[in-house]
Amino acid sequence: MSVQSTLSSVIGPAPAGSAVDGGAEYLSRNPADLDDVVARVRLGGAEALPEAAAQAQRAQREWAQVPAPVRGRVVAGLGRLVEANKESLARLVTREIGKPYGEALGEVQEIIDTCDFFLGEGRRLYGQTVPSEMPDKQLFTFRVPVGVAVVITAGNFPVAVPSWYLVPALLCGNAVVWKPAEYAAGAARALAELAWRAGVPRGVLNLVYADGEATSAGLETALAAGTVQKVGFTGSSAVGARVGELCGRHLQSPCLELGGKNPMVVAPDADLDLAVQGALFSGWGTAGQRCTSLGNLIVHRDVHAEFVGRLDAALRAATLGDPTGDVLYGPLLDRKFAEGFEAVLDTIAEHHTPLGSDHVGRITEAAPRAGFAGDPATGLYYHPVLLDGMRPDDHVFREETFGPVVGVTTYGTLDEAIELGNAPGYGLSAAVYTTDPATAFRFRQGTSAGMVSVNNSTSGAEAHLPFGGNGRSGNGSRQSGIWVLDQFTRWQSLNWDFSGALQKAQMDVGTVEPELDYRLPPELGGPA
Fold it and tell me: For residue range 371-384, what is the model confidence (pLDDT) as tens digits?
């Protein structure tokens, strides 16, 4: 029998008491077996986040004094602890959000890779020595922590994406208030426990469970109180816009990692079998619930029929079902996402041709899926949909669908394909399948996406590359690699004058005057 947890916020050095418990209880259920309650979560009220931020502010001052290489060793310890608990953490992720176990293992590995990378950054938080324009004066630059970071994450990557924030933020000397998704509360607590046991003080990493309304109210209060200096948010574009607006009122620039409507262009010279593999993984892996999931297939009209036929066959042959087995995807994350996906399916119109399965909608005894692994009646299982005949004014073309549906449209010229890819206004990830280098480079130049793949899927981030999007996909901030350091540090300059006199920049500067009227003589090539 699976173990059920009872979880509360952890604020400061000890678990939070009733002062920050809002009284509401959330049941985090296994979406593959809805009778299996993974955790009973006591949600905090609007005062929970401000209290956590105040505690974090007090703890951050001491944490910032820990030498960065030592903080790097704490990050290394977290990586080793995650590695030692890799299978257990992956099984919890699978149980709580329904992600296939193989993908869950990959997600946990991403935490390990992130820790491995940032271990070294503890010794490379470099500043610079800058030459001065005046004698007997030295100029320096330093990276300093921002202070307290509030991190709000979605649950589709319940441990990997949070690590993109937590690891660099902690390494740089910040304290963190982490508000995970309620439906991934168990996985969040497991990762936090590993961080605390790696040597992160509890007051430096605080875990807050709250619903959206309480989180919004609490964040506004904490920003107004001046106890939060950075906000990191991963979630929908609509909520991200509200977070950005709130931060703007307090002159803050948040790190926003939002949704995507990620295009894949299939050129006439593409390796179609390879393109089918990429579309299958990025379009329906994790049931289409990644921010980098394939959204729109844009296929050259000369290969459209052949490509769609091959992809339809591959999708029909794919095994769906019990996420503990070898399946393309399992259930949707949570009931609210199932309801949202059903609303998307309601937009299917007469000009669309649904492919990929014999039915559309929830997989049931009356609408079975051939080769389904397990019992579909236990969970939130839905048929895959390949929607041919998509038009630019369709909902499925314009909006993130966050479910196992991908639309297909055609193009004639590369410029047309690029325009179609950019049209929804997102800019997270994009892919092109081609054997022509010119096509690849022209596509990269034209796409609005922050991440571009050639002959690879729209999904799949490596821990040392910048991750993030533009437009409706984000505000240009980047996570992962050295680029995320600019989110969790601020540049500070120091000028040190040891001349013994007041030297004024731009005024007390020595000059050398050139002889501007000099011209080369004839013997040196000048005019006769």
Answer: 999 999 999 999 99
